[in-house]
Amino acid sequence: MAKQDTINMNPSLVLSGGIFLAIVTIVHIFYEGIIRPSAEAVIAAYGAAATGNIWVILKDFEQQACISIGLYCCFLMLYKSFRIKHEEPLYTMNFLAEDEDGEKADVEEVLKKLENSAFKDSGAMSTWITCIQRYINTQNVQHASDAISTSIESLAAQLESGNSMIRYVIWAIPSIGFVGTVRGIGAALAQAEEAVAGNISGMVDKLGVAFNSTLVSLVISIILMLLLHLLNNRQDQMVIKTQKTCEKHLLSHLHK
């Protein structure tokens, strides 16, 4: 995995594309096998009175698209959350701790170990490596401290930019719902003559498309915004923990 993807915690393009195709396929099978047949059965049995049925609300293509990309967005956020959980121990480790005999750890030896670590491209480890490299090059603790501040700011910015796809999906879902609204209203107006003649079932069905697509898309976007808020909170905590552990375990050692 590329270093950029490791720090911003995005899945690889291959994994991301495979999961997206799998979600689209599974949702389509579910729609064709359960939702649309159930909706048709309810409409045939109750007619216009079936507009409030859950199957009827979900049956249209706009709702299918919203659910598909909504689930994909959930995957992206869950992936990032698991990555944060997996790297959690790094934010409390003291790589420069004294050994059992009270001997100080050799800074250059620690740097070599960190550079060969499996977590070398993670946010916390990258900050340690950058700071130690700056200290070895300059033998100045203040320069090392400045390197920590720069690395922390870069980490926060990369985590924020890594959420751009999630924010785009959350924006796109209501837009897809509005597309369904426009399509439904346009189709309903085409049924105006039949409605004037006394057959309102066609117009009611098309208006259902208009309102249901907006309803579903807004509900999904509200849920996703909550999940994004929780993810952002975990990422902020990760940045804070990285800064604290560097100041506590790294700078305190270099000052000795």
UniProtKB/TrEMBL annotation:
Transmembrane annotation, as ranges: 12-31, 168-189, 209-231
Membrane topology: Multi-pass membrane protein
GO biological process, alphabetically ordered: protein import
InterPro entries registered for this protein in UniProt: ExbB/TolQ_transport, MotA_ExbB_proton_chnl
Cell membrane in keyword set: yes
UniProt entry keywords in alphabetical sequence: Cell membrane, Membrane, Protein transport, Transmembrane, Transmembrane helix, Transport
Chain ranges of the MotA/TolQ/ExbB proton channel domain: 134-241
Cellular localisation: Cell membrane; Membrane
GO cellular component term of the entry, any: plasma membrane
Pfam families (UniProt xref): MotA_ExbB (PF01618)
Family assignment from sequence similarity: Belongs to the exbB/tolQ family.
PANTHER family: MOTA_TOLQ_EXBB PROTON CHANNEL DOMAIN-CONTAINING PROTEIN (PTHR30625:SF11), PROTEIN TOLQ (PTHR30625)
Entry protein name: MotA/TolQ/ExbB proton channel family protein
Source taxonomy: Bacteria, Pseudomonadati, Pseudomonadota, Gammaproteobacteria, Alteromonadales
